[in-house]
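Section 5.1 Outputs to date
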Amino acid sequence: MNNVAVCCVCDRPIEGQVYTLGGRTYDALHYERVSRENRAAIGPLLVTIAAGVLFAGVLAALFHFADIQLSGVALIGAGVVMALVPAAIWLFAFYQQDRLEPEPKRLVLGVFILGALLAAAVGQPLIRDVFRVQEWTGNSLLTGLVSSILIVGFIQEFLKYAAVRYTVYGSAEFDERVDGIIYGAAAGLGYATLLNLQYVIGNEGVDLGVGAMRVMTSALAQASFAGVTGYFIARAKFEHMGPFWLPMGVTIAAVLNGVVSYALGEVTTLFGFAFNPWYGLVVAVIVAGATFAVLFAIIRRLNAASTTRATTTGAPAAQA
């Protein structure tokens, strides 16, 4: 009895032509999916960036010019709602896009929730209570930057990686390269939502104009960092990338996290001027836009190359 080729996505025996990509075998359906150009997938991320900036700008202007004053429970309640807005914008955009490009809602929402739970149960307790970075990292630029990468960056990015790698990674619904970025961004937004809630509740409410920019900055930054990890996870799922590929992906995301997060803390007082949260939001928009643009451009090139190779790498499936 000859060995029967098995599709690496659905784990089913392949009937008919066998397609190969990066040393892994696919049936015709899943090869088409993994190599297709899904331009629509970037839509929710672009909507989140644009709508988030608009939301932050409108809210900041409203509270500045209308001189609205909230206090006590009303202020905390408004802050909590505001902290949830970035996730709500993204989920709404994703669900609207889902009508055209279906992605299992329960899986995306599950990764989002898991990202928040891991932040609450593991990530923030380690960073704040075990390593206590808030107490000693302000001593010097070098100390702050190194701790931002080696402690904060690695803890946060490993947990986002775990939220995808140990849940949806083996699912047959994870069948496109771009899915890695989508699931990664979902984990990142979940983590950011927890950070934003802690920020609001820990300060017993915030200046809502400044807070709106702060929560959007956090959401865009955390989603873009995790999108990098998601790209590496997707390549590992659909191609043999070697044992160092995933650790390298987490490391790159952690370094990006640490450097950008440290820069965001410094840029709000750029050139020695008074605190201005707009600087941080502008940097976050640039980082998120550039990161996702580069990731989707790389995937488009990979998909185009896969489509070109399809006619030359296919072979008849071995029959029992």
